[in-house]
Design goal:
The protein has a domain of 172 residues: Oxidoreductase, molybdopterin-binding domain (Sulfite Oxidase, Chain A, domain 2, Alpha-Beta Complex), CATH 3.90.420.10. 23% of the residues lie in helices and 20% in strands. The chain is built from 5 helices and 12 strands. Strand 1 and strand 2 form a beta hairpin. The N terminus is likely disordered.
């Protein structure tokens, strides 16, 4: 049925705009625009590459600090200082059921190549000396270490190479050792990790008997409740390749800090050298 023009039903919705005619783009214009973009990208990339080369050469020419270009070492140290500032004894590594413990692979022989005389072995501890005085050494047998409260924990040993293993450790807390033998303060006051004395040494050095392997710790990590002077692993005494008779375990640090076969512990004012730090690794080595 036809309707008069004035009586046709109104279309629903807004009226669509009329399409505008499109101006075709020539092949030459497309090529010119692509060429401009290519030149711009080339210039930006060239500047970035040149900056990278200049920066790399600057790093190569920079003086070395502990086996690393000084600017990079300062970045690592700044990160370490920040981590230390936020470090809390209440932050604990995850502990696991003993049933999840596995044998730990043998890894690293630095400091273990000389013959071990377990009977003659003694732990040498250098007391934190008052300024201007000669540090005093004190010796301890393994039995004296074992006489302190025994702590057992099952934690994840993390290697800086990227692998990890859950291990059950047993030993005495380093903080318990220092509470019994107050060698980390100049005054001889026992150490309380929750209320540290004002004259507490800021750093700890641990060295193997042959002096071939050595690590440094900030005192906060040394006093952490999971930092152990360890003499057992997975329910049995340490074997020589795993650091017998006494090793360090500190599960908030990578394995490079878990020194095996401790010979000497010293409490110091200055940050001590560290075997892997002088080879370019992070001195703090926390995770």
């Amino acid at each position: 049925m036809a309707y008069p023009e004035s009586s046709q039903p109104a279309a629903s919705g807004p009226a669509l705009p009329e399409s505008q005619p499109t101006t075709p783009v020539s092949d030459e214009a497309v090529e010119r625009q692509a060429a401009r973009r290519t030149r711009r990208a080339f210039l930006v990339g060239g500047v970035a590459a040149l900056a990278g080369i200049v920066g790399w050469n600057w790093l190569l020419d920079a003086p070395q600090e502990d086996g690393l270009a000084a600017p990079l070492r300062r970045v690592l140290d700044a990160n370490g200082r920040l981590a230390t500032a936020y470090f809390r004894n209440t932050r604990l590594a995850t502990e696991f059921p003993k049933s999840r413990a596995k044998p730990l692979r043998k890894n690293g022989t630095e400091g273990l190549k000389s013959a071990l005389d377990a009977v003659a072995w003694r732990l040498q501890v250098q007391r934190y000396a008052p300024a201007g005085t000669t540090p005093r050494m004190q010796e301890f047998t393994l039995d004296e270490v074992k006489a302190l409260p025994r702590v057992e924990m099952t934690t994840e040993f993390k290697c800086i190479e990227g692998w990890s293993t859950i291990v059950t450790w047993a030993g005495t807390r380093l903080s318990d050792f220092l509470a019994k033998y107050p060698l980390a303060t100049r005054s001889g006051r026992p150490v309380d990790p929750n209320n540290p004395p004002t004259d507490l040494a800021p750093y700890v050095s641990l060295v193997t008997p042959d002096k071939e392997y050595y690590v440094g710790l900030e005192i906060e990590s040394a006093l952490h409740p999971q930092t152990l002077l360890c003499y057992e692993m997975n329910g049995t005494p340490l074997t020589p390749e795993h650091g017998a008779p006494l090793r360090l375990v500190t599960p908030l640090k990578y394995g490079i800090k878990h020194i095996k076969r401790i010979g000497t512990i010293a409490f110091l004012d200055q940050r001590p050298p560290d075997y892997w730090a002088v080879r370019g690794y992070d001195w703090h080595a926390g995770h």
